Amino acid sequence: MAFTIEMLYSLVILLFCSLGNSLSSNYYGKTCPEVESIVAKVVKDATSKDKTVPAALLRMHFHDCFIRGCDGSVLLESKGGNKAEKDGPPNLSLHAFYVIQNAKKTVEAVCPGVVSCADILAFAARDSVVLSGGPTWYVPKGRKDGRTSKASETTQLPAPTFNISQLQKSFSLRGLSMEDLVALSGGHTVGFSH
Ligand code: HEM
Ligand SMILES: *[C@@H]1O[C@H](CO)[C@@H](O)[C@H](O)[C@H]1NC(C)=O
Ligand SMILES: *[C@@H]1O[C@H](CO)[C@@H](O)[C@H](O)[C@H]1NC(C)=O
């Protein structure tokens, strides 16, 4: 389970770059100062009961961010005629959604209507890496939750059959370099794969 520290630091830098300037460090400073410690505790408790939780949350964050940006759209349920991202083909092994739901519920009890699910998922992914023995990083805050989630758009995720040029293209469409691709692939240090 040894993370390559350099890889994960690159991940931090890339998250800063790809998220732009609209996020801030003190976004919840007045409205929900405890949010990060609340989420960290929920993730820690869930992990103590199920060791597969951290890998699930890290991958969930990646799937969220690659489709429509980090907007929580991976968390939405299918409704009516609309099939949501989580019901798209690559979702089949996404799991531990209940951990984000618990975190959101716990946060809502302390600061109702303030913190986005997208931010909670971003915190939880970071906490997951820390719990797995990796480094920590600073998560800028203020993501807004999207209301659109389409299973059909999950074809925009890189497929396991992709060769290197296809992977590079998929990442560059999101402003991510070859270096980012290599660093982020370090995420597979944890978890399972068929
Ligand atoms: C480079 C393109 C990527 C491809 C093609 C890819 C593909 C996959 C595949 C096929 C699996 C196994 C799913 C299964 O067997 O059901 C997997 C698992 C996983 N991926 Fe990726 N992935 C990519 C990038 C990433 C990134 C950027 C991250 C996060 C930094 C990530 C984190 C994970 C994790 C943590 C798992 C294990 C999930 C678990 O155990 O629940 N992947 N990935
Ligand atoms: C993923 O999608 C499949 C097929 O659309 C669905 O049956 C399944 O419940 C979904 N899994 C999760 C974890 O949402
Ligand atoms: C990768 O696959 C694409 C599409 O099948 C193909 O056009 C390209 O030449 C391949 N690149 C490499 C490096 O194999």
TrEMBL record:
InterPro entries, per the entry: Haem_peroxidase (IPR002016), Haem_peroxidase_sf (IPR010255), Peroxidase_pln (IPR000823), Peroxidases_heam-ligand_BS (IPR019793), Secretory_peroxidase (IPR033905)
Cross-referenced Gene3D superfamilies: 1.10.520.10
Signal peptide boundaries: 1-22
Gene Ontology terms for molecular function: heme binding; lactoperoxidase activity; metal ion binding
Residues of the Plant heme peroxidase family profile domain: 22-194
PANTHER family given in the database record: PEROXIDASE 25-RELATED
Marked site (Transition state stabilizer) residue numbers: R59
Co-factor: note: Binds 2 calcium ions per subunit.
Enzyme class: oxidoreductase
Binding site for Ca(2+) 2: T189
Family per similarity comment: Belongs to the peroxidase family. Ascorbate peroxidase subfamily.
Active site: H63
Binding positions (heme b): H188
Keyword terms, alphabetized: Calcium, Disulfide bond, Glycoprotein, Heme, Iron, Metal-binding, Oxidoreductase, Peroxidase, Signal
This protein's name: peroxidase
EC number: 1.11.1.7
Catalysed reaction, written as an equation: 2 a phenolic donor + H2O2 = 2 a phenolic radical donor + 2 H2O
Residues involved in Ca(2+) 1 binding: D64, G69, D71, S73, E85
Names of required cofactors: Ca(2+); heme b
One record GO biological process: hydrogen peroxide catabolic process
Amino acids binding substrate: P158
Coiled coil regions in record: none
Disulfide bridge map: C32-C111, C65-C70
